[in-house]
Design a protein that fits this description.
Length: about 400
Amino acid sequence: MRYQTDFSPQHLADAPRVVRLGPWTLHYQAFSRYAEDRREPVLMLGGAFQSFRSFGAEVQELLPWHPVILLDLPSQGGNLQLAPELSLGQLSDLIAAFAEEFQLPPLMPIGLSYGSALAALFAVRHPGRCARLLLAGITAFGRPGARRMLEEGLDLLAEGQTQRFAQGALTGLINPLRLEETGISLVFRKALLRQMQRLSRQEVERYQQNSRRLLDFSGFDRHPACPTLVLAGEYDHFTQPWEHAGFAAACSDADCALIHNGDHLAQFEQREACASFYRPFLQGNALPLASPGATRLARNRLDRLERRQEPRVAPLNRRGRLLHAEAGEWPVDVNELGFFGGLVQGNLPAILPNRGWRLQAGDLPALDLLPLRREGDDLALVFPHTDAEASEALAAQVVQAEPQAVAYA
């Protein structure tokens, strides 16, 4: 590997280098202080809507101590090559093939969101090529609510409802109830929404393939054995803190840090808090028990984090109606109502359609919902938040009813 030595953030917008491994094309950029560098490189693997330009601050932060490689596998980042036949595991094998092609020393992958699954599988399937592993925004665990949201997104894209898809995806990535804490600006949210609303046909197909890979993934039968650090955003609803902690608990040598006032994009929202942990970790130094904006979770606490991330309250007027254009209409009692989901009770049919439901509750606009599970007359549901106006009205009601302090456990 010959590294580029004159890094500036502007270089991340340059055309990437390209390597072909059999039928597959991989895009990469590689930076170091030295053109020839045999130190263990950091490997950046981004999420569904991230490009190399997302990582300018991280590359600058890391270069004094490590070579840095940014890699886009097929269907990832700026690499538009479609690869519907490849599973997550097979994509992770391409990372090993990339390392073999350039005779790289053991890698230190940083996997974010979708990239976290690829990085973790690489560490499991090719342990000799992975020195250290850093993960944030853990994916591919199959939590029922997250699966339903991914499935709904795929259905909306298949129907050409790009605007509704984009609104729902934005709510998954950025927790709208915690904008004051996370500090995400309206300008950034609008820019990300426009990006998702304007996906090209090829980008839509790529997103669909990547989502299907996550849905098809049956879970980890083995976990990384190398030193591993997992960073969990405190308010991440899409990939929740207890999921991050559970993954760390299953690893033989892992720590998990809770990034305060961060959600699914914690790496970008709370950069210094994240860096206070990944800097010593990548250099093989002891991690702090806490730093400004972050706390390392005790090992004996990793499997005891609270799984419900938002309080659920009973509305003052519990009377509601479930509405379906084809199946009909049923009165229900709204026993619990939160921003991301709720619980209703009623004499409902034994078999319910998977999609097309709305909940009329109190004076709120009708809320699109997805049935999640049935227990007797109780129906748990999640809100896909594909209607911005209805979501804003629900958020206002939930925030008003929320207790002043909610303990994490």
